[in-house]
Amino acid sequence: MTRLNVPLGRILGIPIGLDYSWLVIFALLTWMLAGSYYPAAFGDWPPLLYWFMGAVTAIMLFVSVLLHELGHSVVAQRYGIPVRSITLFLFGGVARIGAETPSAIAEFYIAIAGPFVSMVLAGVFYAAQPLVAGIEPLLGLAKYLVYINLALVLFNLIPGYPLDGGRVFRAVVWAITGNMNRATLIAANVGRFFAFLFIFTGVWQMFSGNFGGGLWIAFIGWFLDNAASAQVQQVTSQGVLAGHKVSQAMSTDCTAVSADLTLQQLVDDHILASGHRCFLVKRGGSTVGLITLHRIKEVPRSEWATTTAVEVMLPISEAQRTDPDTELWAALQHMDRDGVNQLPITRNEEVVGMLSREDVITFLRTLQELGKGRGASGRGRPF
Hints:
By secondary structure, the chain is α+β, with helices and mostly antiparallel strands. It is 58% helix and 15% strand. The radius of gyration is 25 Å and the shape is globular.
């Protein structure tokens, strides 16, 4: 989703982005409103006005979704949880929270904040109707925004993860059991139940003659199932990795290159030859930086022959890093939170290895094949 993201600016310090898939639902919703809702409610408007109000209403819908996500984000920030971004996309919006919630009560308030904002918006637009009763386009807009914000509340309060209602349900189970992983697993499986219910209902609608509406309902169910399944997989992976250290998964044969090596030489002699995507930059026997394929790609190809590694590298003092004794799951969260694909592993300020996402995935697969999660080590599973 981030690869097709158009930045819109920042609100309360949170980057706001627009995924290109939003244009699909914007076009469909504008067409639906201009072709059915507004003509049915107001039959004497000129055709151009139907299309204009359809577009305005579609935009206001996503403004409502943005405010909904900001509700989650503001409460998360109050609990000291960073919010990395908010993205509007095909199914509405998503706020990317940069850390786990610290407690069940924090999870509850963060989850319920979005539906609360939508309920307030529905009340505001309902109260505004008498004020704009004499202006039909504004009246039609206000009526639709009451309906759509109430629909957002009802849909999001379905008690299946990752919907807001599912997160509220997870918070309740978490408070009862005292185990966030178990609560997440239960809520995610309930979410999968509702996802399959959506898919079944959608297919039934399709065969009953409502093909377009049924397809959309089934598509939503498919999306929810994918999201809930990913959460189940995350909890399972966390259980398998629990108790394992970075030192067990990191790579110790880090390729080092000279600070004076040109990017062209680096690409020809190392990247294409070995397939490695990350290198330590050495000068005088000391590691001075880190250079990745991403940083190389930022330099125009015509300048590779004259640009050296030291000019492009990320200084080691500025790089996100961790130590070999860090819990592997915590290191993976660190990479996800900071948006990096690898971490230098240091001990006493000396680089002793490198941990990449691929290293973690390979180690996880090995553990799963050998059956050596926490259960096999005698400590018991967390859920």
